[in-house]
Amino acid sequence: MKVLITGISGFAGSHLAEYLLAKKNIKVCGIDIKNCNLNNIKHIKKEISLYQADITNFNSIRKVIREVKPDRIFHLAAKTFVGASFGLPQETFYTNIIGQLNIFEAVKSLKINPLIQVSGSSDEYGLVLRKELPIKETNLLRPLSPYAVSKVAQDLLGFQYFKSYGLKIIRTRAFNHCGARMAEVFVASSFAKQIAMIENKKQKAVIRVGNLKAVRDFSDVRDIVRAYWLTLEKCEPGEVYNICSQKSYEIRELLDILLSYSGVKVRIEKDPQRIRPSDTPVLVGSCEKFRNATGWKPEISFEKTLKDLLDYWRQNI
Q1: Residue 304's domain spans which residues?
Q2: Are 82 and 148 in contact, with CB atoms under 8 Å apart?
Q3: pTM above 0.90, yes or no
Q4: CATH code of the domain containing 236
Q5: Over the stretch 255-287, which tens digit does the pLDDT of each residue have?
Q6: Are 32 and 148 found together in one domain?
Q7: Cβ(208)–Cβ(194) below 8 Å
Q8: What is the Cα–Cα distance from 240 to 238, expressed in whole angstroms?
Q9: Residue 317 CA, distance from chain mean position
Q10: Residues 158, 266: one domain?
Q11: Alpha-carbon distance 139 to 173, whole Å?
């Protein structure tokens, strides 16, 4: 089986590549942009077929897909940082929306029909009312950031290309996930890196934070990529599925757990740069539809996820 992962050197992409390589009998191919940071896949680079291409360039993407002729595509490449999207909305929209359109159009023009997973986000739900918790796939989408709006567009484009052209597209809305190799711009990784820096006396004993009262549903990235695989194994094209742990944590709880693994004493300091113009207060999902379809459930505890993330930064400071 030939599997193509866009954004293979990214956080989730690198973990998905590892997971697929361990399954054997799968040829893992990946796309990433030229001169991107390949540290996340340096340990498996010899085991994959890596193509340098820009998803926003149609001819570039079509050439790769024509050569690979994938049986399955996991579309993970995107601008993913919510905070940055407020300052770079045009770039976020262009990469996420046009990039996905190029993949769909390339597949359609080549007259192939692989299974395609479109990686959406819980941020699509945005402003969620307390009475709507836990969030189901039928919930209204009220996005609160340019990133979230771009993911809604990706989501609906997936549905449209399924209905209009019969492409075998399955959409997922993964809630927050973290683990080793997570970029430091994301909250769990930011806290873990700051703690590791303080332990190594490379930063003052101050943890800079944003909104500690936000509530999120966290999973381990290794559980999430296992879910992505099951999406194309057992789910129905045209459908959308939440992937989440169904457990909620305040961001303050996340920080407290990380600090419990370290002996450092710190001061917590609000950083205005980490406060967003609008922030989703609560994101806690229902995964019932996906679990019924696949039997999936998280296997890695949140505590272990955070411990592994802290150890990752300790090794890389």
Answers
A1: 182-216+247-316
A2: yes
A3: yes
A4: 3.40.50.720
A5: 999 999 998 999 999 988 777 676 778 889 999
A6: yes
A7: yes
A8: 7
A9: 24
A10: no
A11: 12
